[in-house]
Write a structure and sequence with these properties.
Blueprint (H helix, E strand, L loop, with lengths): L7 H23 L6 H10 L6 H18 L7 H12 L22 E2 L7 E3 L7 H13 L10 H15 L6 H15 L11 H6 L1 H13 L5 H35 L8 H12 L7 H8 L3 H13 L3 E6 L2 E6 L3 H6 L4
Antiparallel strand pairs: 1-2, 3-4
């Protein structure tokens, strides 16, 4: 048999898709989306339409992350931030016109309230009439590269950009999600490409009170952002540790499946990845759309992959509407050990 090997580029594409999904889901859950991780991933992979506000928030966040990667460019502008926010909040606001625009003078200004006492504000953002100028200054700060006498480490700069937009709270809703995406954008612009594979929102969500407290401590101590900087550096460190564990686990899973398939012919890296996932999720459901999304391939390539696995007796194909779904056969492990081919 020709050994099945996943190249660095192929593995990177799959890890990237998973990381973007994870960040989109957890960042939205931080802001109140109640959809479960499993249901949310199924929705993103299959491309089905969101059924409620929480699912819409997750889809929006995923699209916003793609916009950040592919369309925002190398220079930050107020227009780019407004477009990012429009994508983040589209279809989720009580006032649809508030998507993609700053709060205006005369409107009730959005404040940040205590998690345990929704009557007690813990942060009153700057007046609405200051927001256009403050956003211009924020963009100027983000576009500085520290080439002159003033040097700010890029990671510190990205964390401060996150803090700045959250502090100004320029939008009716979606400030936190927009701020976290801007952090990732600046990190990537400064050469920290690994941040794409390090979703930070899952770490923040493990202790959301600490995240909020880091903002409050910075504000209450005469604007000393050290508290927030330390917190975010700890978040990045934990994300790196989790990434290392994840990579080692994935390497082990791929090797296990490769051993099972050592006598099989013609299976490619995408099929290997799907079977690895199926072994971990016996109730998993796959479609041409979900497979195409996970691996960034065409619908026709996905059709070929899944149809082949079905013909090998490794997936069950079922009719659903005008399409098909695929699920692992009940005795998948035994069939893999038999080395079908």
């Amino acid at each position: 048999m020709e050994e099945v090997v996943m190249s660095e580029k192929q593995a990177g594409q799959r890890f990237l898709v998973n990381s973007l999904m994870e960040e989109a889901i957890r960042s939205s859950q931080l802001e109140g989306a109640t959809t479960s991780r499993r249901v949310a991933k199924e929705m993103l992979r299959t491309g089905r339409r969101p059924r409620n506000r929480g699912e819409r928030m997750i889809v929006n966040n995923y699209r916003a992350l793609q916009f950040m990667r592919e369309e925002m460019g190398k220079t930050l502008s107020p227009d780019a931030i407004l477009e990012l926010h429009k994508i983040v909040t589209g279809g989720t606001l009580d006032d649809p016109s508030a998507a993609g625009r700053l709060q205006r003078p005369g409107e009730e200004r959005v404040a940040v309230f205590d998690r345990d006492d929704d009557e007690r504000p813990v942060h009153i953002p700057p007046p609405a009439d200051e927001l256009p100028e403050r956003m211009r200054q924020l963009c100027d700060f983000a576009n500085e590269r520290g080439d002159g006498d003033r040097f700010i480490h890029p990671v510190v700069q990205a964390i401060l950009l996150h803090f700045w937009l959250a502090y100004d709270h320029p939008f009716e809703d979606g400030n936190g999600r927009t701020a976290r995406i801007l952090f990732s954008w600046l990190m990537q612009q400064r050469g920290y490409w690994l941040i794409e594979y390090l979703p930070i929102s899952p770490i923040i969500r493990e202790a959301p009170a600490r995240y909020g407290r880091a903002f409050m401590e910075s504000e209450s101590d005469q604007g000393d952002t050290t508290y927030f900087l330390v917190h975010q550096l700890e978040v990045i460190e934990k994300a790196l540790d989790k990434h290392d564990v994840y990579i080692q686990r994935k390497i082990g899973e791929v090797r296990d499946v490769e051993r099972m398939l050592q006598d099989a012919d013609g299976l490619n890296h995408r099929q290997l990845a799907l079977l690895t996932d199926a072994l971990r999720n016996p109730d998993g459901i796959y479609t041409f759309g979900s497979h195409a999304t996970s691996h960034r391939v065409t619908h026709e390539t996905a059709r070929t992959d899944l149809s082949d696995l079905s013909e090998r007796g490794l997936l069950l194909r079922r009719s659903k509407g005008r399409g098909y779904t695929f699920e692992p056969v009940p005795d998948l492990v035994a069939r893999l050990k038999e080395s079908p081919g």
